[in-house]
């Protein structure tokens, strides 16, 4: 069964950023800005944390927006990224209604593969992978 | 510095609104944090000028492991302390270490004075922004404005001062990301003297992990991560938090209360960490890169008008705050303590020094050393409303008395009297432990007069033999120079033993042996003492106020002569180190 990443309980988040760091590590980078998921606060540290992940849409707007075939449908939801076809136009990121796609410093979109590596580094089990 | 052989220093000149970067290979041997910040202070300090002269520097440094290894979350600030008028060093967590790391900044040196109130935005460049409209605003309100006017939510850090810093209160702190602080020794006043209201740093640059290091890095990261999250080494900091100490310290006659008239507080149970957790704790948050989440947030609501009109306030608390703004001033329940913390936070004061100053003022008032003409209201242990007003008066320098109280209890007691019960050690207000010789000697001789310099209180609690105390203080002081240069949160000190430190450094391409680390620690401590000497400081000047010998500790009543001899013994060890 394919798996997808889900936010299980956003409210438990303590903002340690270990998940973002894990994703970046997998991508060969130390920097949390180089991750496919995002954790930030609404209204500063006294506000709640917002966890933005790929929602593994069945009918992905990002794929629809890509005119170059760089995003194809992923089994279970979400998309698969084909870097060789990407023109770095950013249309996918603009199309995502929850802003789950960020662009890396080279201009490529950072697309979640739903591998679940980040979930192993959440000390409060806020995120998890679910079989679909 | 990460996978490089230099320290990248950002120099900012507020007077001329200029900045430049330097890649300093010569600083690499100081690791980062305390080591680099002390060295940069030594280079840039102007001993002949006042601590608040525009030419004096503010230094920040993170370390080679910052954010890339678990719980390496702190930044060290060094400066010429306007409070003790000697070496100033303070540490803060939050997101600052991460934001510096991913802005490719290892250290910052700020000098000069802005032409009018300004704040800095450090992103791709350094922007000097107008802060005239924010001058006079609280820490909280300033934070909200900075947040609205800068990008990088989640990967930026925001520092700011409140009114106490603007008004040069010598123990004003700098707030970092709402719940963390460069609290001690007056960095906030140094900001204020430069008309620097705040600094926002955005850290969104990628930093590649070298392919050849990847495997090793992951292994070491995972092994430390597992120790942090799957063992009980750090559990105490997450569960009830450091305020778990309140009850045991009270039981062992070590909880400073009512201006250290006693170390057994009759209301200790009501302000215990357990009580806070049950009644007011609403959530916990973490510094970036820390899986523990020790920041305990308590909540209170206050009726500000008839008709069920409430405001709800979140404030962070820990042992030091519960002691200083709780037992030391006689408050009796979590809600009262949170309310006093809230005003201290808004004004941007150091919580420990403020609490100890209020404690001294209360006793001085009771004894008639100061009168209502000075205080403008009666002071009584346990009366919250007057203390809340007094905090505002300290922050704004309401009258001559509050201006003096805003320079600390050493200064105020020299002016008004009551030096015997002014609870400072080395000019810095005491922290929340009165455990024995380890605590009073440790705080007195500690290079920044902080309980975290050498943890003398912990040496006392281990019931160390008297003749071994000074040696242990010295060894711990030395060893912590490594931890605070890397800059590992001291709560993780048991995770990062020497073996782990060597492995962690190796995983990021820095090869050092045990003996090399020891040599580095010695050189860093020497650097601090060279600065102290330049500023005319000597361990000979230490005079421990009488109150510390009158009030019982875990190890009984302390003997003044014995304590003074211990200070001398420590001085001999420092003299030996400096040879």
Automatic annotation (TrEMBL), chain A:
Please name the PROSITE patterns in this protein's record: 4FE4S_FER_1, 4FE4S_FER_2
Q: Which domain of life is it from?
A: Bacteria
Q: What is the lineage of its organism?
A: Bacteria, Bacillati, Bacillota, Clostridia, Eubacteriales
Which GO molecular function terms does the record list? 4 iron, 4 sulfur cluster binding; metal ion binding
The record ties this protein, via InterPro entries, to:
4Fe4S_Fe-S-bd, 4Fe4S_Fe_S_CS, RnfB_subfamily
**Alphabetic keyword roster:** 4Fe-4S, Iron, Iron-sulfur, Metal-binding
Q: Which residues form the 4Fe-4S ferredoxin-type domain?
A: 77-106, 112-132
Official protein name in the record? Iron-sulfur cluster-binding protein
**One Pfam family from the record:** Fer4_9
Automatic annotation (TrEMBL), chain B:
Instruction: Supply the alphabetized keyword list.
Output: 4Fe-4S, Iron, Iron-sulfur, Metal-binding, Oxidoreductase
Q: What is its EC number?
A: 1.2.7.5
Which Gene Ontology MF annotations are present?
Answer: 4 iron, 4 sulfur cluster binding; aldehyde ferredoxin oxidoreductase activity; electron transfer activity; metal ion binding
Positions of the Aldehyde ferredoxin oxidoreductase N-terminal domain: 6-205
Coiled-coil ranges (or none) = none
Known cofactor(s): [4Fe-4S] cluster; tungstopterin
Q: A Pfam family matched by this chain, by name?
A: AFOR_N
Please state which protein family the record places this protein in: Belongs to the AOR/FOR family.
Q: What is this protein called?
A: Tungsten-containing aldehyde:ferredoxin oxidoreductase
Q: Which organism is it from?
A: Caloramator australicus RC3
């Amino acid at each position: 069964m394919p798996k997808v990443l889900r936010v299980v309980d956003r409210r438990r988040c303590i903002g340690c950023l270990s998940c973002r760091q894990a994703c970046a590590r997998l991508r060969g980078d130390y920097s949390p800005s180089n991750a496919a998921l995002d954790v930030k606060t609404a209204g500063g540290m006294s506000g709640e944390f917002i966890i933005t992940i790929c929602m593994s849409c069945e009918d992905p707007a990002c794929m629809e927006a890509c005119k170059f075939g760089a995003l194809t449908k992923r089994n279970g939801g979400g998309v698969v990224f084909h870097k060789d076809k990407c023109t770095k136009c950013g249309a996918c990121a603009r199309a995502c209604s929850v802003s789950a796609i960020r662009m890396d410093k080279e201009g490529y979109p950072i697309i979640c593969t739903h591998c679940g590596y980040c979930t192993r580094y959440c000390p409060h089990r806020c995120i998890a992978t679910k079989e679909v | 510095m990460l996978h490089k052989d230099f320290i990248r220093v950002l120099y900012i000149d507020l007077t001329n609104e200029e900045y430049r970067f330097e890649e300093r290979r010569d600083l690499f041997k100081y690791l980062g944090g305390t080591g680099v910040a002390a060295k940069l202070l030594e280079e840039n300090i102007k001993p002949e000028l006042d601590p608040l002269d525009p030419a004096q520097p503010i230094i920040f440094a993170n370390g080679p492991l910052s954010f890339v290894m678990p719980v390496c979350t702190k930044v060290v600030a060094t400066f010429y302390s306007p409070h003790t008028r000697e070496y100033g060093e303070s540490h803060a967590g939050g997101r600052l270490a991460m934001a510096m790391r991913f802005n490719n900044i290892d250290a910052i040196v700020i000098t000069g004075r802005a032409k009018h109130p300004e704040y800095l935005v450090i992103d791709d460049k350094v922007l000097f922004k107008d802060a005239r409209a924010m001058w006079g605003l609280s820490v909280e309100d300033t934070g909200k404005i900075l947040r609205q006017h800068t990008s990088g939510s989640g990967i930026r850090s925001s520092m700011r001062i409140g009114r106490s810093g603007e008004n040069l209160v010598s123990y004003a702190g700098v707030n970092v990301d709402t719940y963390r602080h460069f609290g001690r020794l007056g960095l906030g006043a140094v900001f204020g003297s430069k008309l620097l209201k705040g600094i926002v740093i955005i850290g969104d640059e990628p930093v590649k992990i070298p392919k050849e290091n990847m495997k090793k890095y992951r292994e070491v990261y995972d092994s430390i991560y597992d120790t942090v999250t799957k063992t009980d080494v750090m559990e105490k900091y997450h569960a009830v938090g450091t305020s778990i100490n309140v009850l045991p310290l009270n039981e062992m006659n070590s909880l400073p209360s009512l201006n250290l008239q006693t170390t057994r507080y009759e209301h200790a149970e009501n302000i215990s960490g357990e009580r806070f957790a049950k009644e007011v704790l609403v959530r916990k948050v973490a510094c970036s890169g820390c899986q523990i989440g020790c920041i305990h947030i308590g909540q209170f609501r206050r009726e500000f008008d008839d008709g069920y009109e409430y405001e709800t306030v979140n404030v962070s608390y820990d042992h030091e705050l519960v002691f200083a703004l709780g037992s030391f001033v006689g408050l009796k329940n979590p809600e009262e303590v949170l309310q006093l913390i809230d005003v201290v936070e808004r004004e941007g004061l150091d919580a420990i020094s403020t609490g100890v100053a209020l404690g001294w003022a209360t006793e001085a008032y009771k004894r008639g050393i100061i009168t209502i003409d000075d205080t403008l209201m009666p002071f009584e242990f346990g009366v919250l409303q007057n203390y809340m007003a007094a905090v505002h008066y300290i922050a704004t320098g309401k009258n001559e008395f509050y201006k003096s109280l805003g320079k600390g209890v050493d200064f105020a007691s020299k002016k008004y009297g009551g030096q015997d019960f002014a609870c400072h050690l080395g000019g810095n207000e005491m922290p929340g432990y009165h455990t024995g010789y380890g605590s009073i000697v440790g705080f007195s001789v500690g290079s920044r007069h902080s309980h975290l310099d050498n943890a003398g209180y912990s040496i006392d609690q281990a019931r160390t033999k008297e003749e071994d105390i000074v040696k242990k203080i010295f060894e711990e002081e030395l060893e912590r120079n490594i931890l605070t240069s890397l800059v590992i949160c001291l709560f993780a000190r048991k995770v990062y033993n020497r073996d782990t430190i060597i492995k962690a450094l190796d995983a990021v391409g820095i090869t050092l042996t045990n003996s090399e680390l020891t040599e580095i620690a010695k050189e860093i401590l020497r650097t601090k003492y060279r600065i102290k000497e330049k500023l005319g400081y000597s361990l000979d000047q230490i005079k421990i106020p009488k109150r510390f010998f009158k009030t019982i500790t875990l190890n009984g009543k302390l003997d003044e002569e014995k304590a003074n001899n211990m200070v001398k013994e420590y001085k001999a060890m420092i003299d030996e180190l400096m040879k």
